[in-house]
Write a structure and sequence with these properties.
The protein contains 16 helices and five strands. The protein has 363 residues and is mainly alpha-helical. The strands form two sheets. A three-stranded antiparallel beta sheet has the order 1-2-3. The chain has a two-stranded antiparallel ribbon with strand order 4-5. A hairpin with a 6-residue loop joins strand 4 and strand 5. Helix 3 (84-97) packs antiparallel against helix 15.
């Protein structure tokens, strides 16, 4: 039989559709998580301010920025924990946090890890005492500012005066009186100038990091403007404009206050929107390190130390090395066995392989 003409040949079957990748699924989960957290924050604002009775409409731009912040943080965090490395990190961390056996062996380990890695951040001191001090100034200044700004923005905190102009004030949380104070004494001045204190902490810390990124060659070679410099500039602008608002009201009788208020509001809103998508996101990621450090600490208590395959020096805890190898296998990197060697032996082995195969015969 002869082959049928080309015009009468049966049409080729279309290629089978490729199975859907995980990216749309991750994006969908991240969108759902961001939407859910944003809605919860809106409900918290409404009911925390007693159905907007204590909500200040002048702070609406700040409140909207925090809702967007909640969506962005939940979205990116969901995407982050979807990666094999972060997923293993969180899984092992949560297991260590809720392990009854770990708590019995070391009941004070969790508070010490939280204080070390979240509060004092001693790991930065090993690199540079100046960097550690600057980071502490920025950290505690931002923490103080957030503790004051967010509840005030959401209408959870209110300061009221029975006379309308003070000096006696009452601080209320969710409509409940917490304490009364005189705005002219030390406590009152600290209460009303808490944000100024936060700004005085942030400015020198952020300025040091900005100076370092302009002078240090190691920092200059790897820095990016939007990722490394913009966060520092935003912190300085927010802090300086906040101090200028106080300066205008105290020394200039309100001169230029409206312009400064708008400038300060724009800088704060932009900073809040920037947090989920820039370097500030490590603030959200840092708590995960507490669980992992607890995971490594309990393994050391059990003397589960993994020695280097070449020199025998300790590399890390055995569970941590196995966790790292599992992550590398999940990523299909193909060289997970290298996790069993210390950094020095890795360099020696790479150099030996280079001389043997690339520069063969080189002396």
């Amino acid at each position: 039989m002869t082959e049928p003409p080309a015009a009468k040949r049966p049409a080729a079957k279309p290629p089978a559709a490729k199975p859907p990748t995980g990216k749309p699924t991750v994006a969908l989960r991240a969108t759902a998580a961001g939407t859910a957290l944003s809605l919860l924050l809106i409900l918290a604002i409404v009911f925390g301010s007693r159905r907007l009775k204590d909500f200040d409409s002048a702070l609406l731009p700040y409140a909207c920025a925090t809702v967007f912040l909640a969506f962005g943080v939940a979205y990116r965090y969901t995407v982050w924990v979807s990666s094999p490395g972060a997923r293993r990190l969180l899984t092992q961390g949560w297991r260590s946090l809720f392990s009854v056996a770990n708590f019995r062996r070391a009941p004070t380990a969790l508070p010490r890890m939280a204080a070390t890695y979240l509060g004092l951040q001693k790991f930065l001191g090993a690199r540079s005492h100046a960097r550690w001090a600057a980071h502490q100034l920025v950290f505690w200044g931002c923490l103080l500012a957030a503790a004051i700004t967010f509840p005030l923005t959401w209408g959870w905190f209110t300061f009221t005066s029975s006379t309308g102009s003070g000096p006696g004030y009452e601080m209320r949380i969710w409509g409940l009186k917490i304490l009364g104070f005189d705005s002219l004494n030390l406590l009152g001045r600290l209460m009303f100038h808490g944000l100024d204190i936060a700004a005085l902490l942030v400015i020198p810390g952020a300025s040091y990091f900005l100076w370092r990124r302009m002078k240090d060659r190691g920092a200059i070679t790897g820095q990016r403007f939007a990722y490394d410099l913009v966060p520092l500039l935003l912190l300085i602008v927010v802090s300086v404009t906040g101090l200028l608002l106080t300066f205008s009201s105290v020394f200039l009788h309100g001169g230029g206050y409206e312009f400064l208020a708008v400038l300060h509001m724009v800088s704060v809103v932009f900073t809040l929107i920037y947090i989920p998508f820039g370097k500030f996101f490590h603030i959200v990621q840092r708590p995960a390190a507490v669980g992992m450090q607890l995971f490594k600490y309990t393994a050391r208590q059990d003397e589960q130390v993994f020695p280097c395959r070449r020199c025998g020096e300790p590399v890390d805890t055995a569970p941590y090395v196995e966790n790292l190898r599992g992550t590398m296998r999940d990523l299909r990197l193909g060289f997970d066995a290298w996790a069993e060697y210390c950094p020095r032996c890795k360099r020696v082995l790479r150099g030996s392989a280079y001389l043997a195969h690339v520069k063969k015969g080189y002396k």
